[in-house]
Amino acid sequence: MKIDRRQFIKSAAAVTTVAALPGAPFIRSAAAADTIKVGILHSLSGTIAIAEAAIVDAEKMAIDEINAAGGVMGRKIEPILEDGASDWPTFAEKARKLIQKDKVAAVFGCYTSASRKAVLPVFEQNNGLLYYPTYYEGQEQSKNVIYTAQEATQSVIAAVEWLAKNKGKTFFLVGSDYIYPRTCNKIAKPTIARVGGKTLGEEYAPLGHTEFSSIINKIKAAKPDCIYSTVVGGSNVAFFKQLKAAGLSGDKQTLLSTVVSENEIDGIGKENAVGYYACMGYFQSQKNPANEKFVKAIKAKYGQDRVVGDPMECGYTGVYFWKLAVEKAKSFDVEKVVAASSNLPLSAPEGDIKLHASNHHTWKHARIGRARADGQFDIVYESGLIEPNPFPKL
User: Fold this and answer.
1) Which pairs with CB-CB distance under 8 Å and at least 24 residues apart come from 374-379?
2) One domain, residues 312 and 276
3) Domains in the chain: how many in total?
4) Pairing outcome for strands 277-280 and 254-257
5) Cβ atoms within 10 A of the Cβ of 33, count?
6) Cα–Cα dist 270/272, whole Å
């Protein structure tokens, strides 16, 4: 069903509010006579494209909405799109190009922690501003990054506590072999112990890995109550199919992932994911007026079969957080934009959220959903707003 875009934009504007306090100092501006440039930097090719390409669509839609409503500070936003190609040196190269050559005011981008770590020195050395839309491991705070998704404590702790209470207290941990899964498991293991549980195994596979038979055999031998998965990207296609083939489908084995959203299920195949759980800050199935307008707009723009996942929504809200901060600061200067972001609230599709007063992260809800046959999630748990804690004691 088509919607009136002007009505949607008016409604979206009505539910966004700004209240800023002085915040962290810092840096940069980008200007043109009637436009302002921003960068969009994600993987449109390679193994991580299954997760990142949809974020680009959401960020572009937010820009289109804002432009249709008159732009930011009287200027239309001009997005410059670059492909990180699932390659971390390429991400750094493209970030440098966007900041130094294109003179963008901000960049909306990255997905994996490896890509963010690759571009971080570029942003810090060149006074750029990155809005990062992906749930990640924490252990970072930069004056040049606004983190719009949950850091690990905002999902892992809630997930483990819910599983231990509702599904059993023995766990097998499996993830892709990079910083996010390993740090999440450093948080998960003491949480499992604290709730009286036991970790029966911990295994990692390289990014892009497609042969999980050895790990699955170890899981079957351990017979855990719960699998906690941080396998990411295209590897999940193989992992979920092979779990099902091994008799560990969602009706027989509890598995919860903190990295599989509706977008990934589209690639995995709905029939391979049904019955498994995910812990996210956002699910498409949430019932609130802002989300219903958001989902309808996505489908009107990109097709009725499109689905919306957590990083996609966080990419969308990142653009609006930047817009609100610019308008509060009355400037595109990075130092002023970041200062205006302190305690900045937003009525987003995921609900009312806000940026932290000082650590550049976002207060988030933790939600647990169970995958249905149609690829959507039935929400079985929802927390209140959780303060970000990017540096927990591990």
Assistant:
1) 374/270, 375/262, 375/265, 375/266, 375/270, 375/273, 375/307, 376/262, 376/283, 376/284, 376/285, 376/307, 377/262, 377/278, 377/283, 377/284, 377/285, 378/285, 379/283, 379/285, 379/286
2) no
3) 2
4) parallel
5) 5
6) 5
What is the rounded distance in angstroms from the CA atom of residue 94 to the CA atom of residue 104?
A: 12
Tell how strand 35-42 and strand 351-355 pair up: unpaired
Question: Which letter does DSSP use for residue 153 in this model?
Answer: G
Q: How would you write the pLDDT of the chain (394 residues) with one tens digit per residue?
A: 433 433 433 333 333 333 333 333 333 444 446 999 999 999 999 988 877 999 999 999 999 999 999 999 999 999 999 999 999 999 999 999 999 999 999 999 999 888 999 999 999 999 999 999 999 999 999 999 999 999 999 999 999 999 999 999 999 999 999 888 999 999 999 999 999 999 999 999 998 899 999 999 999 999 999 999 999 888 999 999 999 999 999 999 999 999 999 988 988 999 999 999 999 999 999 999 999 999 999 999 999 999 999 999 999 999 999 999 999 999 999 999 999 999 999 999 999 999 999 999 999 999 999 999 999 999 999 999 999 999 998 7
Give backbone dihedrals phi and psi of 213, rounded to 5 degrees, phi first: -60, -40
Domain range for 216: 153-285+368-382
Which two three-digit tokens encode residue 174? 């499996």
Does residue 126 share a domain with residue 86? yes
Residue 30 has phi, psi (to 5 degrees) of: -145, 130
Map residue 190 onto helix, strand or coil. helix
Please state the length of the chain: 394
What tokens does 362 get? Answer: 């976002």
In this structure, the answer to whether residues 378 and 239 fall within a common structural domain is yes
Interstrand relation of 277-280 and 367-371 (parallel, antiparallel or unpaired): antiparallel
Cα of first residue to Cα of last residue in the chain, in angstroms, is: 48
pLDDT at 393: 85
Q: Based on the fold, state whether residues 108 and 246 are members of the same structural domain.
A: no
Considering the domain architecture, whether residues 274 and 332 belong to the same structural domain is answered as no
Task: Please report how many Cα atoms fall inside a 13 Å half-sphere around the Cα of residue 354, on the Cβ side.
Answer: 17
Find where tokens 């008159």 sit.
70
Give the Cα-Cα-Cα angle 32, 36, 38 (nearest 5 degrees).
135
The rounded distance, in Å, linking the Cα atoms of 384 and 64 is 31
Structure tokens at 5: 């875009």
From CA 22, how far away is CA 29, in angstroms rounded?
Answer: 18
